[in-house]
Predict the 3D structure of the following.
Amino acid sequence: MIVRALTFALLALIPWLMSCDRGAAGGTGSESGTEGTGKRLKIAVIPKGTTHEFWKAVHAGAAKASQELDVDIVWKGPLKEDDLKQQIDLVQSFTAQRVDGILLAPLNEKALAKAVKDASRFKIPVVVIDSALKGKHHVSFVATDNRQAGKLAGQRMAKLLDGKGKVIVLRYQEGSASTANREQGFLEAINAHGGIEVVSDNQYGGATTESAFTAAESLLIAKQAMGGGVNGVFCPNESTTFGMLLAFRKLGLAGKLALVGFDASDKLIKALAEKHITALVLQDPFTMGYLGVKTMVSHLRGKPVEKVIDTGSQLVDFANMNKPEIKRLLKPDLKKWLGE
């Protein structure tokens, strides 16, 4: 019983000790970085997942910035983009390790808010990337203007359909602010055209290609896509786009219906070249990782940072996919920074 009581007492003291120690070190000013203490900055980068090509590009951009600024990054995220518990645990773990800062792409705009607030209490700043987070406890948000990117997709779809037809939206997953904003932007652009009917916008593909394929196939069959019941489909991220592509191919619809997707991978680029995908909205994940780390380091070194930084978006199709500025987004140089 005595041992147990002492354990609880020590645990209760940890937050106070962390706060005092970080306060002495100066958690957000120049004293917290190399300029004041001589300590090398250590920044944790927590993506939504680690398997999609998008996150590899974010990692490469973060690695470039870390080398240029002479700081260390620790890259660690959930294997799958639906492991919310693991991502919360990672934020809490890095907070307990007292890293100098955390770069976070939150899986859920509400569920990560408390962990970020706790990090802020211990004077560990958080820069949010990719997907918005509720609350005011992060120092900056570095991401695509996702609503505007969704509008790009909707405007292209309306043009492809000549302002009339039936459209499906296969959503990603509930709680993901980035994809929800893309879906909203797409629907806003489509609804500006009275001749286009959205026949489904309440189905979710989930975090993996497998779940997206299953949802896509069921949706296409239910809406009689093979018999003219669907003219175009929008998917808001890499996994839903690829899952829908697989369903198109299985059902003999590839190249027959308009498919506007999001993000890029080798398989999606190949499908674009084959005209099985009509268009993709590209983000700039390399720049997102790069500016995310740069923003964090500027903040830690006492420099002012912008609250919101837009990393831009671009629409690619068969006609412009080989232009140099587009190829840079389609195939960022990962090997140089990640050794891949």
Observations:
- Residues 1-36 have pLDDT under 50 and may be disordered.
- The CA atoms of residues 58 and 263 lie 12 Å apart.
